[in-house]
Write a structure and sequence with these properties.
324 residues, alpha/beta, five-stranded mixed β-sheet, 9 strands, disordered C terminus
């Protein structure tokens, strides 16, 4: 799907066969690992073409169909290589971080049209991964056996239930990223520390207060750019009520869709109503949530109840990323 025409043809074929398109799962991917100094355009462009441009070319015509029918589920595939960083993967990490951003933006745009958009960051022994490890392996037999034992637990079939749930009509969440592998599922999210404020900030202030700036105690997970700006204004302009400022309308909170003017018809021909996406914060990253309750809460920010302040999350802490 390297061209717009290719994406449009795929969607037309689906419409001709099934009459509508309710679900889009984008999972195509390639690897072209190299150090940055060796990442020439010939190494960069194919990865961006497959992971980003093809995603765009398929999603755009699908999006038009989903908007018109007032319903859709989109599941994209990102990677910890883009969310957390991984050596030799400047091209792949860039592409996968782009997928994460694309997912969040579409969730904002699709909220009022009954379209929910999420992403997975799978950990699985796919053919691509196994082939890649085989090509670059310099391990001795003992370590090779250990790697194979680990890969044996990473059955891709254990990621499939997560995709199926996110693609289901009952899925209550949107604009979220889930990591899944070996039967474990957790959520990646982007947090904001309370930080430090000085009205005449200097380089020395940044240096002297770096620990406070980085301290994750009491971090929040803003619901969108408007909520993040509101947090800034509460600190920098006390007494102002940020939520009432007209400028924040340009950064409207994305994951609290307006109530539908009327119910819409889903793919199973019964009526449904949309609910705001539930933002789930867990103090530990172990296991799956007990449930995915539909939330009727407003789009207020959520504050982490834990007081973890280490640089790297331990197995029992919440998973955090430093992406902005």
């Amino acid at each position: 799907m390297a061209t717009p025409d290719g994406g449009a043809a795929l969607v037309r074929a689906a419409l001709d066969t099934y009459g509508r398109v309710d679900i889009l799962v984008s999972n195509a991917g390639i690897l072209r690992d190299a150090l940055l100094e060796d990442t020439t355009p010939g190494v960069l462009d194919p990865v961006l073409d497959v992971h980003v441009k093809a995603l765009f070319h398929v999603t755009r015509p699908t999006w038009k169909v989903m908007r018109e029918q007032g319903y859709g589920r989109v599941v994209n595939t990102t990677s910890a290589a883009g969310l957390l960083g991984s050596p030799h993967k400047s091209n792949y990490g860039t592409a996968k971080a782009g997928v994460a951003g694309f997912t969040r933006v579409l969730a904002v745009e699709g909220a009022e049209h009954g379209i929910k958009v999420n992403a997975i960051a799978p950990i699985a022994a796919t053919r691509m991964l196994v082939k890649h490890l085989g090509e670059g392996s310099r391990l001795d037999p003992a370590n090779t056996a250990m790697v194979n034992a680990v890969l044996g637990r990473l059955d891709p079939e254990l990621v499939a239930p997560v995709v199926a749930f996110l693609a289901h009509e009952d899925c209550p969440v949107t604009r979220e990223i889930y990591t899944a592998g070996a039967g474990q599922i957790a959520r990646f999210f982007i947090g904001r520390t309370p930080g430090y404020h000085h009205p005449e900030l200097s380089v020395e202030d940044v240096r002297d207060h770096l620990a406070e700036i980085r301290d994750e105690t009491g971090y929040t997970v803003p619901a969108g750019p408007g909520k993040e700006i509101a947090q800034l204004l509460r600190v920098t302009q006390p007494g102002v009520v940020p939520d009432t400022l007209p400028i924040l309308g340009a950064f409207a909170s994305p994951d609290v869709p307006r109530a539908p003017s009327s119910p819409r018809t889903c793919c199973h021909d019964h009526r449904y109503a949309r609910f705001p996406g539930t933002r789930m914060l867990r103090a530990n990253g172990e296991g799956a949530p007990d449930a995915f309750p539909r939330s009727t809460a407003s789009g207020s920010d959520m504050t982490c109840p834990s007081t973890a302040s280490t640089n790297s999350p331990s197995p029992g802490e919440a998973m955090r990323t430093d992406i902005t």
